[in-house]
Design a protein that fits this description.
single chain, FAD/NAD(P)-binding domain, 16 helices, about 20% strand, carotenoid biosynthesis, FAD/NAD-bd_sf, oxidoreductase, Amino_oxidase, oxidoreductase activity
Amino acid sequence: MARIVVVGAGVGGLATAARLAATGHQVTVFERADTVGGKLGRYAHDTPAGSFHFDTGPSLLTLPEVFHDLFEATGAKLDEYLDLVPLDPIVRHVFPADGPALDSCADPVEFATRIGAAFGDRAAADWQRLWRRAARVWNASSRDILRRTVDSPRDLASLAWRVGDLAAIAPGRTLRGLGRRHLSDPRLRMMLDRYATYTGADPRRAPAALVAVPYAELAFGGWYLRGGLGTLADALLTRCLDLGVVVQTDATVTRIDATGGRVHGVRLAGVTAPVPADVVVANVDALTVYRDLLPHPRRLAGLTDRSLAGFVLLLGVSGSTGLAHHNVFFPRDYDAEFDAIFGDPGRGVRARPAADPTVFVTVADDPMVRPAGHEAWFVLVNAPRQGTAAGAVDWRRPGLADAYADRVLDVLARRGMDVRDRLLFREVRTPADLDAATGAPGGSIYGTAGGLLRPANRGPANGLWLVGGSTHPGGGLPMVTLSAQIVADEIGPAW
């Protein structure tokens, strides 16, 4: 039996702790915040009309089998803890030109039919060809990448991909290039581009292999958890406590002790004595690990290319708007948005809030999260990270957050969804707020910008492991949960 310390009680940390405790290890979790969940945050707002409850992080659960596997591995059933609600549509796409919206769904034949009805038979045929290619990429990725350690480019190169897999993955091609090659309709190209933002990347630079992301969402479905996705954190905490895991909140780890090439424990703020450990699992951003907790210049190199961040509005809206659960309102010029968000430091062009951004609106039809006759809106806009460098924006600048919130509401109004005179309240969350709340450097949602190779799960000292969205296999709830499975399997059982 190993003494294991998990740093951070996000989904990755809690999932790892539960798996390790279920196999006989002695596990303690230290979390700097006063609650668990990490980026799976929540916010409640009381009004005379009643209480509103918001997920402030992920709003969609995909690959449900990953979570079924997690709970079964810890001796439980997912359905005993969580109420999964399938979504149709998964996402409603609203495009800038007049015309029909496009509702995605988990039935590929039905989705192709919807594309044909909205954009014509050629668009539907284009999508079906791309879908077949995406299936090959997904199958190769899920078989060779998502459930095993990938520590270096050499590991990727040595994977036993068949020639057909390599052709589908198209090394060196971008997601934007793949869309232009396969999709004739500009609206479908725009929809495909959006999936690069799932990894925090610019579609003009993101690898074509990210076509696996829409495949995973549309092949296995999108799901909502009744009561909000934050209930996943509650369920994982319950599993951990039932398995004997010690979870301490308001406990900040300041250092990982790793003299002599192996970990010995961690140090906590305000505590003189170190906490001994045979194994340390870090569920914090890899940049924070190698910059602050265990300084390592070689591992730190390359982690400064940060993913995009998010600007969020939490709105209490009176009445019903008829929106789907997830809605995307696209701009007329998608490239202008990416030019603004990422800037071009090499040419002296600073990042800035996009003037006409894509707006994501999540509205859960769930009486547990809003009073009768009202809606709780989670509004997300892609945004530059917090900072003062050329590729960032100082969101703490007085007046900026409120001014941009006004701008986002104006954009929604121009796109036919004006709720400015129906607001009971609005709360603003900037990348600076995410940085402060979760320790995500600059408020970057996915750590480093998306690509096939993420920081390795295996740390540079024996007994050190990394889990979470900034590490392999990537961001998003299922990938974070798979990182926990990878690490727990590598550590092995206590017996």
